[in-house]
Write a structure and sequence with these properties.
The protein is an alpha/beta fold. Helix content is 41%, strand content 15%. The protein has 15 helices and twelve strands. Strand 10, helix 11 and strand 11 (305-308) form a beta-alpha-beta unit.
Length: 382
């Protein structure tokens, strides 16, 4: 249960991939998603839907749950109880969904179903009053949890999760491998209208304040002093005021303006391979993080990552092996790492490290964790 097509985004991809692979292991898996994920007034982007995109080859989702419609919570719970599942797996990433998920979870447990959750974020990047109480409401209705980084596991402890009562399994975020194969770099750049021989940096994904795009923009003048042909491609929909970022780029000077390209829209699945194939390096200048699906897309396409030492990002990107790690909110350190990447010709050595590292990010580890939690003896339920 969680976001699935027609809803878009990394967690929707994660859910469908999980259900598909459970089926491949011989499990009967049904996907239940939202009739309404967010009220439109609360959604910061242009649309919640992956309009015009195929749903993929995973299980098709039943749209049943209205995140703010309590009647649908009970209706969804009745549907699940009638299906008599052995376990129900929630994708949990925001306290906003805790009332709906927690209510459904409490109902399906009455018939003995095991309630598990893959906790992408235990606490949000942009906190709000009530987050802790909402998350505790949901977590108390679970029988086992899977996390994808040390950071999330620590947040669960802060929320009072006792692993002796609610077992936690930690696995690495699997590599997203459903975007197809890499293209020849020259072809990818031709499609995007980029110079064939320019050093290309890619910032990919929704633009939120915590992702630190402003820090990367502030680093670009120093990058261009040493690597004057460098080009930064910002590919993703803005959940912030786009004009602020364009104005910041303009204020840095005409050289920076010419070196930064904004493809300010949601990038359809069919175009993801083109952007990553065109890049030499993926940059994640985040201020905060738990883990990142963007890094896992980069790994699929064998692209090194320059990232900040926040949350689980440094766990994913071993410094000097699959990328470079710098302090957060430090444009000078970020610029120095990017200059080093190009000056020292690190693209191929680090790409080789990415290829070695991604072997550790199999979906099998996630499925093993879910199957283990499904049979772990339960503590007495409250």
């Amino acid at each position: 249960m969680g976001p699935a097509p027609p809803y878009r985004g990394g967690i929707a991809h994660f859910l469908v991939s999980t259900a598909k692979r459970l089926r491949e292991r011989g499990h009967a898996a049904e996907v239940v998603t939202f009739t309404r994920q967010y009220p439109e007034l609360l959604f910061p982007g242009k649309t919640q839907y992956a309009e015009g995109e195929p749903a993929g080859d995973g299980p098709q989702a039943r749209r049943m749950l209205d995140s703010v419609g309590p009647r649908s919570w009970w209706r969804t719970a009745r549907h699940l109880r009638a299906w008599e599942p052995d376990m129900v797996v929630f994708m949990q990433w925001m306290p906003f969904f805790a009332p709906a998920f927690g209510t459904v979870a409490r109902q399906v447990r009455k018939d003995g179903a095991r309630v598990l959750a893959v906790v992408h974020n235990a606490l949000p990047h942009e906190p709000r009053p009530g987050d802790h109480a909402l998350m505790r409401y949901f977590l108390k209705a679970t029988d086992g949890l899977v996390v994808l980084s040390d950071s999330v596991r620590s947040d669960l402890a802060r929320l009072g999760v006792d692993e002796a009562q609610t077992p936690v399994r930690q696995v690495r975020h699997p590599v997203y491998d459903h975007f197809g194969d890499a293209l020849p770099q020259a072809e990818a750049r031709r499609r995007l209208g980029l110079p064939a021989d320019a050093p290309v940096l890619l910032f990919f994904g929704f633009v939120r304040a915590y992702k630190g795009l402003d820090v990367l923009l502030d680093a670009m003048p120093d990058v261009l002093k040493r690597v004057p042909e460098a080009r930064l491609v910002v590919a993703g929909e803005f959940y912030e005021d786009e004009a602020t970022y364009r104005e910041r780029t303009a204020a840095l000077g005409t050289e920076t303006m010419g070196a930064v390209r904004f493809d300010a829209d949601y990038i359809p699945d069919a175009e993801v391979a083109t952007y990553f194939s065109a890049a030499d390096v993926v940059v994640q200048p985040y201020r905060s993080a738990t883990q990142s699906g963007v890094a896992q897309i980069a790994f699929h396409f064998a692209r090194p990552v320059v990232t900040t030492d926040v949350g689980g990002l440094a766990e994913t990107v071993p410094d000097g092996e699959a990328g470079l790690v710098v302090p957060p909110e430090d444009p000078a350190a970020l610029a120095a790492a990017l200059v080093r990447f190009f000056d020292d010709d690190l693209a191929e050595p680090l790409a080789a490290g990415v290829r070695r590292e991604r072997e550790r990010y199999s979906w099998d580890h996630l499925l093993d964790a879910l199957e283990a939690l499904a049979v772990t003896p339960l503590s007495p339920r409250p």
